[in-house]
Design goal:
Blueprint (H helix, E strand, L loop, with lengths): L1 E6 L9 E6 L8 E2 L5 E2 L2 H6 L27 E2 L13 E2 L4 E2 L52 H11 L7 E2 L6 H5 L9 E2 L4 E2 L25 E5 L6 E5 L8 E4 L2 E5 H13 L7 E3 L4 H4 L8 E9 L6 E2 L6 E7 L9 E6 L6 E4 L30
Parallel strand pairs: 5-11, 6-16, 7-14, 10-18, 17-20
Antiparallel strand pairs: 1-2, 3-4, 8-9, 11-12, 12-20, 13-19, 14-16, 15-16, 18-19
The protein binds S-adenosylmethionine (SAM).
């Protein structure tokens, strides 16, 4: 018996080695292809190999994600410009807790009837939606193209625009959001946000093929970070036309408590930092009423974050809407803030930060808005 070592890949990129035995009598070498095709010479092996052939990857100096996303995200300077990306920023595609934030991602919190333990393949193809669609009224949040369904999208736009018709809850005692703002005012009321629940770790469907696993797959459309010509610093745009409801990215950064964020804000304010990058994970404040400091969490993208950190604000008619998503377990102190297209876009991607420009007490002193929208709320002289 002869032993052959077979490369599963091109000659220049041997990634996996496989040893096979073959009879000596024919005098032929047998090359076993990884997708079970056999070829009798090395040449035809490599010509039938591309199914598994993975191009040798290089570190693309223009990819701000440094390979962390499944698509590269290039950055583009203004013509003739020499702006550089911030040096104290490291790209991460997963949220990381800084120090005190308590994140309760526990298997025991996922009850059997809160996940699909008998599903196979793609849950969206099932005749009847599985348990995972319960959160969204018995229908999956996504369509077969991986986009958020129209009704849910409309609802999210209404909620984020503070539509009076949306359900509101007022804190009975101290409002954690007012406390976070350093204010002693009464609760202004919280809109009850509708969450999306994706299939999670205990579900038995396919981790990549299930259509109820969209946000957890990460960025898949072509995005670009570019230097805005209107004085907003860096911004994000798409280089392809995105359909309504397409998931663009989630807001990823360091997970902080309010106190930690306050300390950072103060420091940055003293340093006269130009840009600020925090968001509050407050979509479920209304069901808790009373929250300890280490449970009302925020994401800060200043030092660690993903492409969402470069998305600028637009008042009123922004083309992205944020939707809270449960991915790991039902603990809503930490959830995923996903951005989907609410208006067709092939231009700068913007998101309404929901800032009150007149609020002098706001912990992040609002910038002078240059969004250019007819609905711009920054009316300060
Ligand atoms: C999340 S960052 C966005 C990325 C930022 N432009 C950069 O270069 O890193 C938020 C900051 O961008 C700037 N910004 C965002 N939207 C803006 C707008 N509509 N007008 C002016 N500045 C804006 C503000 O300085 C704000 O604090």
């Amino acid at each position: 018996m002869k032993t052959f070592v077979v490369f599963a890949g091109a000659p220049s990129a041997p990634q996996a080695l496989e040893v096979i035995n073959t009879g000596e009598s024919s005098g032929e070498s047998v090359f076993l292809h990884q997708n079970s095709r056999t070829c009798t010479d090395r040449r035809s092996f490599f010509s039938c190999a591309p199914v598994r052939y993975k191009k040798k990857q290089r570190h693309d100096p223009n990819d701000i994600a440094k390979g962390a996303e499944s698509v590269p995200i290039p950055f583009v300077r203004a013509p003739g410009g020499d702006e550089s990306l911030p040096e104290d920023f490291t790209y991460t595609a997963v949220a990381v807790a800084y120090e005190k934030a308590k994140i309760e991602i526990r298997l025991c919190k996922i009850e059997q009837d809160n996940c699909c333990t008998a599903c196979f393949g793609n849950c969206l193809k099932k005749k009847w939606p599985c348990h995972c669609a319960r959160e969204t009224g018995g229908e999956f949040a996504y369509n077969e193209d991986g986009c958020v369904k129209k009704e849910l999208l409309r609802q999210a736009v209404r909620e984020t625009q503070g539509d009076e018709a949306c359900r509101r809850v007022t804190c009975e005692k101290e409002c954690p959001m007012e406390v976070a703002r350093g204010s002693t005012e009464k609760c202004r009321g919280h809109i009850v946000r509708r969450f999306i629940k994706e299939c999670w770790v205990k579900c038995t469907c396919h981790k990549k093929l299930c259509g109820n696993r969209i946000v957890q797959q990460g960025v898949r459309y072509k995005l670009e970070v570019f230097w805005t010509p209107t004085g907003k610093g860096w911004g994000v745009r798409t280089t392809e036309d995105l359909p309504m409801g397409a998931f663009v990215c989630e807001y990823i950064g360091e997970i902080l408590t309010n106190t930690e964020l306050d300390e950072r804000n103060e420091e940055r304010f003293l340093k006269q930092s130009r840009h600020f990058y925090p968001i509050y994970l407050d979509s479920d404040v209304c069901t808790e009423r009373i929250l300890e400091d280490d449970h009302l969490l925020c994401l800060d993208c200043t030092h660690y974050g993903n492409v969402a950190r470069f998305i600028n604000h637009r008042c009123g008619d922004s083309n992205l809407v944020d939707i809270p998503v449960e991915i790991e377990c039902p603990d809503r102190h930490f959830y995923h803030a996903s951005f989907s297209i609410s208006f067709r876009a092939m231009e700068e991607l913007t998101w309404d930060y929901q800032l009150d420009f007149a609020d002098e007490n706001h912990p992040i002193k609002a910038f002078r808005c240059k969004c250019g929208s007819r609905e711009c709320k920054d009316t300060r002289e």
